[in-house]
Predict the structure of Glycerol-3-phosphate dehydrogenase [NAD(P)+].
Amino acid sequence: MKDRSIEFIQSSNTGLYDNVAVIGAGAWGTALACVLVRAGRNVTLWARRPELAEEINSTGLNQRYLPDIPLPEGLRAVSDMGEALAGAQAVLIVTPSVSIREITEQAHALAAPEVPLFICAKGVEKGTHLLMSGIAEDAAPGRVIGVISGPTFAVEVAADAPTAVTIASNEPEWDKDIAHHAAARMAQSMGTYSFRPYVSNDMVGVEIGGAVKNVVAIACGILEGAGFGMNARAALITRGLSEIKELAVAMGGTRETVTGLAGMGDLMLTCSSTKSRNFSYGRQRGAGIAHDAVFEGKPVVVEGHGNALTVTDLARALGVFMPICEMTRSILHDDVPIGHAFAEYWAAPLQAEPRALDIEIAHPAAEAAFTHYGSELP
Ligand SMILES: NC(=O)C1=CN([C@@H]2O[C@H](COP(=O)(O)OP(=O)(O)OC[C@H]3O[C@@H](n4cnc5c(N)ncnc54)[C@H](OP(=O)(O)O)[C@@H]3O)[C@@H](O)[C@H]2O)C=CC1
Ligand SMILES: O=C(CO)COP(=O)(O)O
């Protein structure tokens, strides 16, 4: 049967957010601002450095974050957050996860109270174990909070390549009044011929996918850098999905969301391309390059590095076992040699698939795995 509420949205523009502020002019913030301009919205992009705002306005480029990609006409950048938020009907917050609390507090103080905030960073906060939406609910009490996530390399989105995302928000009873639901309004406000948003009311499921896939992508990169083949990568992606599923369900999300764009979609993308900073970081570490020398020593946002700690802290607190994330944590944060960490994972007692069956069988060659990988790898 046809979904009549969706039909209503398609035939109505009353719910559009005409004026949108995008907070953060890095790769992802600038790419999302491009989408919104192409969708016909009035967009103000906030850059914390005035010289970056000036470059975007005067050259139509953001060379540091999106080299040589022409930005659409009509995109206006400012470095005063108050100016960016004046008149905004919706706000996208697109800075790295460690800055989301501070930036959300600032935006909350400046934006009109009815304006929803959509968080576009991926991660879990250190100490509190909060997802990005949880931080925002803390930092901006009483406000509608949404998230945008999915398999989306910024460089492709900025270049107008076909891309699908999931947009979720924290409003109750969204199915009863979908035309006025913030996720649906934002989906309609930013959809273009190339950019296809899906809507969801499972923020937790959407966010767990985004946070954990970066950790698994580092693990996949490490194994590739260390010389493993595609079989090992496929195993990690699949078992990584199982870890995402277990954590999401423990947090109140659904398995279905995890198999969607923001879970499986983003996991597949990030674990299989050197366009991913997380995968590339892992690949360099796997090839024996020290943390400080990765990306030739230039600072690059690699969310999975810090999230290897925060995701496993969260999982431990909930009693969820995430062996791939634990392996990654031990390599990145506890200096465990890659071969040893991998053997620890690979030589664990054999289990059922799915793991919910809770069966453990002795590994017939656990010692050999330690001998083999422990001595073969860096
Ligand atoms: N790039 C991508 O393909 C995608 C990224 N994301 C997520 O989006 C988030 C942002 O990533 P991305 O845009 O790629 O990162 P970038 O490194 O490209 O840009 C980061 C931006 O945030 C600003 N910034 C950094 N630290 C702070 C701070 N403490 N306070 C305020 N602004 C700050 C930077 O400003 P300055 O230039 O002044 O340093 C820069 O404008 C991450 O969580 C990432 O996982 C999600 C989907 C796709
Ligand atoms: O989140 C992303 C793609 O969906 C971007 O991945 P990286 O941060 O690894 O580049």
User: Anything to note?
Assistant: Residues 151 and 266 are 4 Å apart (CA to CA). The first strand starts at residue 19 and ends at 23.
